[in-house]
Amino acid sequence: MNTRLLPALLLTLCLPLAACGDSSNSGNSGKPASSTGTPVVDADSIGGKVKAATDKARVELAQGNIKISNDQSDKAEITPQGDLLINGKAVTVDARQRALLLDYRRSVEALAGAGMDIGVAGASLGVKAAGEALRGVFSGNTEGIEEKVNAEAAKMEASAQQLCGLLPTMLAKQQALAVALPAFKPYATMDQSDIDDCRS
Predict the structure, then answer these.
(1) Is residue 198 assigned to a domain?
(2) Cβ neighbours of residue 159 closer than 8 Å, sequence gap 6 or more
(3) Do the Cβ atoms of 132 and 142 come closer than 8 Å?
(4) Which residues of the chain form beta strands (DSSP E)?
(5) Half-sphere exposure of 189 toward its Cβ, with a 13 Å CA cutoff?
(6) Which domain holds residue 60?
């Protein structure tokens, strides 16, 4: 995607995995071990970290400013109240422009929320796949593992397509806002190619 919202979205998608990736404090010392001494995947602990990270991200998204520019010399943000800030200064907007800003902001929140849901599903799939693989190795019965994991992966792919389905509405709202509020136009960088790239 060409839009400057992509880095923020990618960060959102990575939050659950980042939460699970810090093993410096948890380690394996507190995890139960199998009869062979191999640590068992602690799904509840990982799930808790994922949920905590995404819950925090959702709160910050809802309550904080949403950045629409990654250019440090020209920072643009939309506040929860529907103000457009450029380099920290509020752009004068009328009631219609504010309504469009809030509507566009809600689209960004919905897209980021859908991305977080996919991130949580991805973390859960990783835990499930690891658990299935370990059970198969220790029991000697690996039949059906790949099918089970592929079935879960197919659900994730369907969720990703739903995320892509949010983009046309977001593009339309971005374009309407750019027409109504010229100060926003330089940050309206999303185009049809972003939708096509997502779906492909």
Answers:
(1) no
(2) 114, 117, 118, 121
(3) no
(4) 66-67, 76-78, 84-86, 89-90
(5) 13
(6) 5-17+42-64+95-183
* CA–CA dist 198, 160 (Å, integer): 9
**CB-count burial class (<10 Å; 0-12, 13-18, 19+) for 15:** buried
| Tens of pLDDT, residues 146-178 | 776 677 667 767 767 778 888 999 999 999 999
* β 76-78/66-67 pair status: antiparallel
**By the 8 A CB rule, do 66 and 83 touch?**
no
Q: What is the pLDDT of residues 69-96, one digit of tens each?
A: 867 678 999 999 999 999 999 999 999 9
Give the phi and the psi of residue 32 in degrees, each rounded to 5.
-65, 155
Beta bridge partners of 86: 76, 89
Does residue 86 lie in a domain region?
no
pTM of the entire structure? 0.63
